C-alpha cells in the first residue's frame, strides 16, 4: 500500500515548504521508501483524514496514521528496521532531540524573522488572512514591525548557526560520515528558508552552505528540484 505524506504548500502545490515536512521527505528517501506527497494549504490541513491533525506532517501508512515529524521518524525506524537507520541507535535518538531543540528554539526563530513576509506572499488570500492573524498573535508584533527587522535578522543568521558550523568542523554531516535524522532536522529549516526566500543567506564558502549543498544532492537531488 502506498505511503502518503500530507505536507504544506502555498498557492503553488509544486513548492511544499514546511521545515517539518522536509524532515520527513528526507527520512522517507533515507529509508528507500516509495511515497506520495500531498501538499495542502494551511486552511485545508484540518480537513484531511477526518480532522486527524491541525498541522502537518501527517503520514498515512496502511492502517497507521502518524503526526509530528519526530514521531513519524521513530515510526519509520521501527516499522522499516531493515532499511538504513535514521538514528544509529538509542543514543542517536537522544542526540536528535537535542538537535530538534536547537533547531526549533534558535534556528526557526531566526528564519521566521527573515521569511515571514515571503511566506505570506506565497499563499492564497484565505490563507494569507489566517497566516497573518495567527502569526501576529503568536509573535506579538505586526507583520510590518517584523519586516522592518529583516535585514538585521539576515545579518544575525550566521551566528545562530555556529553550533552547526562547529559540528561540521569535525565531519561532513551531523550524523558523522553520512547523514542521519539530525541532519534532516536542520536541513528542513534551511530548505524552508531557501524555498520561501530564494536563498539561505550565507556565503557559498561557509561550512553550513557546503553541508547544505551536500544535503541538496542526496537522493538524486530530490530537494534541489524544488525551488
From TrEMBL:
InterPro entries, alphabetized: Glutathione-S-Trfase_C_sf (IPR036282), Glutathione_S-Trfase_N (IPR004045), GST_UstS-like_C (IPR054416), Thioredoxin-like_sf (IPR036249)
SUPFAM superfamilies (alphabetical): GST C-terminal domain-like (SSF47616), Thioredoxin-like (SSF52833)
Signal peptide residues on this chain, from the entry's feature table: none
Domain GST N-terminal: 8-84
Highest rank taxon of the organism: Bacteria
Protein's UniProt name: Glutathione S-transferase family protein
Amino acid at each position: 500500500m502506498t505511503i502518503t505524506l500530507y505536507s504544506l504548500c502555498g498557492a503553488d502545490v509544486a513548492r511544499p515548504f514546511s521545515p517539518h515536512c522536509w524532515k520527513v521527505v528526507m527520512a522517507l528517501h533515507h529509508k528507500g521508501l516509495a511515497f506520495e506527497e500531498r501538499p495542502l494549504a494551511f486552511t485545508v490541513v484540518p480537513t484531511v483524514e477526518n480532522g486527524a491533525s491541525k498541522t502537518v506532517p501527517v503520514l498515512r501508512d496502511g492502517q497507521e496514521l502518524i503526526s509530528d515529524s519526530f514521531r513519524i521518524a521513530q515510526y519509520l525506524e521501527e516499522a522499516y528496521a531493515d532499511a538504513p537507520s535514521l538514528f544509529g541507535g538509542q543514543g542517536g535518538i537522544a542526540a536528535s532531540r537535542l538537535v530538534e531543540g536547537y533547531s526549533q528554539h534558535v534556528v526557526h526563530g531566526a528564519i521566521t524573522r527573515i521569511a515571514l513576509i515571503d511566506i505570506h506572499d506565497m499563499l492564497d488570500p484565505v490563507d494569507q488572512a489566517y497566516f497573518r492573524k495567527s502569526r501576529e498573535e503568536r509573535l506579538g508584533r505586526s507583520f510590518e514591525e517584523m519586516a522592518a527587522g529583516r535585514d538585521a535578522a539576515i545579518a544575525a543568521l550566521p551566528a545562530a548557526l555556529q553550533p552547526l558550523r562547529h559540528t561540521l568542523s569535525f565531519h561532513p554531516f551531523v550524523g558523522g560520515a553520512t547523514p542521519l535524522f539530525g541532519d534532516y532536522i536542520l536541513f528542513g529549516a534551511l530548505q524552508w528558508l531557501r524555498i520561501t526566500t530564494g536563498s539561505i543567506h550565507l556565503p557559498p564558502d561557509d561550512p553550513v552552505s557546503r553541508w547544505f549543498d551536500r544535503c541538496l544532492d542526496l537522493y538524486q537531488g530530490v530537494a534541489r528540484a524544488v525551488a
